[in-house]
Amino acid sequence: MGRGYPKVTGVLPVGLENATKVIGNVIHTVKEYVMVIQLHDVVNEESLRRAVEYFKGEIYQRPPLRSSVKRTLRKRNVYEIELLEYRDKFALVRVLSDPGTYMRKIAHDIGLILGVGAHMRELRRTRTGPFKEDETLSTMQEVMEAVTLWREKGDERLLRRVVQPVEVSVVHLPKVMVLDTAVDAIAHGANLAAPGVASVTSDVRRGFAVAVFTLKGELVSLGVSQHDAAEIKNMNKGIVVKTKRVYMQPGIYPQAWKRQVSKS
Amino acid sequence: MGLVERGLEFLDHITERAGYKNDWIVVREADTSSDYGRLPYERPIKEHIVNGVINLDKPPGPTSHEVVAWVKKLVGVSKAGHGGTLEPL
Prior knowledge:
The complex is a heterodimer.
Chain A: E1 7-16, H1 20-23, E2 31-39, H2 45-53, E3 57-61, E4 74-87, E5 90-97, H3 103-114, E6 118-128, E7 131-132, E8 138-139, H4 140-153, H5 157-162, E9 163-165, E10 175-178, H6 180-187, E11 192-193, E12 197-201, E13 209-213, E14 219-225, H7 229-232, E15 239-246
Parallel strand pairs in A: 1-6, 10-13
Antiparallel strand pairs in A: 2-5, 2-6, 3-4, 4-5, 6-7, 10-12, 11-15, 13-14, 14-15
Chain B: H1 3-17, E1 24-26, H2 45-50, E2 52-58, H3 64-75, E3 80-82
């Protein structure tokens, strides 16, 4: 927090109580930022635009000196980058990129390419995976207002808009819906076996993360799929999802004492 | 509308609102009982809070960490965490 610390604002998903367990998984999702870059001298707008667009695609970055991560050269994808505005040494740039892409570094490097030098002045995150600047985005004041309204007046409407169900934080993942009879076993940490599957989304891939839900849409767990969606459709036995993180409390759904017999 | 349809509608709604899409493959026709569990939007307020996330617009100044500590205290929960710091990258 030393000198020249830029103003950083925007989308910061916060998980409450139980939701703390799964909120960390949005770290691995795509990010969008808007930043103000201060150039150290005036440049021609067309050359600035070219310099900005130079960072589209695969870029190499070495983490900054004071960074907590290992300082090895790493590859990151910049999916979209555009100059939104340029006025009097200040450039407004929008970036959509892989997680862990250093915006400050991009700002600095744009200055190097232009030969005038530059640094990041302000940064605003406009998206992290499923969280973006939409009607759910709430300021600190709105959170305070919502809590006060509920506590003092018993009015929970604003609080229900400010606080979203945990399920919104995993919608970017491929999904599996399970039968009522399979829920409690997973809540106890068991893997999901084929007979418990009701439906899957077509993007489920072997070796990749999935979110597991009840038929009512409640989050049960996060896991790693052992098969592609197309294979799961024809499976009657075997493990479909290895459970990695249980969300639902055990005992909410009944324990299926009898082993399920596949009905297909 | 039955519970299954409403559960599906809920998931599709929040997925599309976030800019993603679900293309479902039905593996087994199934129904769900109203005797246990509930639609996420029907959680009583206290249960809703402890299973909730806030899409917070971080103000300039404090660190992500500090902001989370404030929210935790404000809402009155014992734990809170953020999904990726918003310190200058």
